[in-house]
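batch job 7 of whatever, protein = Methionine aminopeptidase 2
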Amino acid sequence: MAEVISHPNTTLEEKEALEPENSGEGDGELPPSSQKEGEETKETSKKKKKKSKSKKKKEILQQSDPPSIPVLELFPSGDFPEGEIQQYKDDNLWRTTSEEKRELERLEKPIYNSVRRAAEVHRQVRKYIRSILKPGMLMTDLCETLENTVRKLISEDGLQAGIAFPTGCSLNWVAAHWTPNSGDKTVLQYDDVMKLDFGTHVDGYIVDCAFTVAFNPMFDPLLEASREATNTGIKEAGVDVRLCDIGAAIQEVMESYEVEINGKVYQVKSIRNLNGHSIGRYQIHAGKSVPIVKGGEQTKMEEGEFFAIETFGSTGKGYVREDLECSHYMKNFDVGHIPLRLPRAKQLLATINKNFSTLAFCRRYLDRLGETKYLMALKNLCDAGIVQPYPPLCDVKGSYVSQFEHTILLRPTCKEVISKGDDY
């Protein structure tokens, strides 16, 4: 009920007209109308109490700071927010109103809900991490804070829900696949360009999403180049779209940017040997590559597929090679039974199968599980072709690389940018 506020220039007569009439003068019994009002007041106060209780319940459903409440508790209905919806291009617009395609989506609802839960965790974790990022942070502390937050919010449950792959926090000319191994003392600096690439999954449905952090505004055009190139790739993607056409559109946008670093101007280049990719269940790279330069494959995207659309802009050669100490590993998805002679290798493989299956992992994760002196056994698994090492990918030393990435789903009726948030 709105409060009546007197205007400074209100006359005495107007004030009296605004005041409620005092019909209950004297000590006598209240007239029936006043009794009725009293009963209504009691009912109103009861309603207010009920409202305040429901408000308290709603307050409980707000995420804490730092985040610690699992998203399952924040969304008790079990339905999670869908990502940004984009319509397909003209030749596929008929899908929007097709009853057959809508029915297909109703059947896929449980899958959509799983991946949306993973995406909601990603959004909340990255929002928190952005709020605490600052120069001087130890990279190991950064990664462990991020990963522990994911574990809490996603209600980590073995292979049913958890981290999809190690936190990539590659710096400057390192484009991807770098995370600190135990004992690493690298510290985040004001002039660093850091790619923060982390993944979440529920029931093996993976959200792969990344952004770049730079404290020095000098790097803003470099970040904008990869962000806009990624948005272009998402816009161009769709059912029956050729992968090569997406790559050409991405390169055109990326290479329209320049960045001035310490007085020298660089044209931003797309890194030609890095790609986006299709995503399968428990399979981060599911076979199709989405190029970020022209001249790629003629293969088409298909209905129902998940894709990671990611772009890398560089001030270097625009070409990466493997370098530095390896931290990322992943069991090969299609590997059959391969006999192993070393008992230690067999035991390590059992740990990998139980905790990661075909999801990527890093040495810090093995340390956390209590594994020690495992490097020889891990090398044995790599040499046997059971596990694949993924060393850091680097452009030329002294250059800078930025990256942005989203996971999209080509639904039967529309395109859903699952990992989209208010930030990017």
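notes: The chain has two domains: 76-96+104-318+400-417, 326-390.
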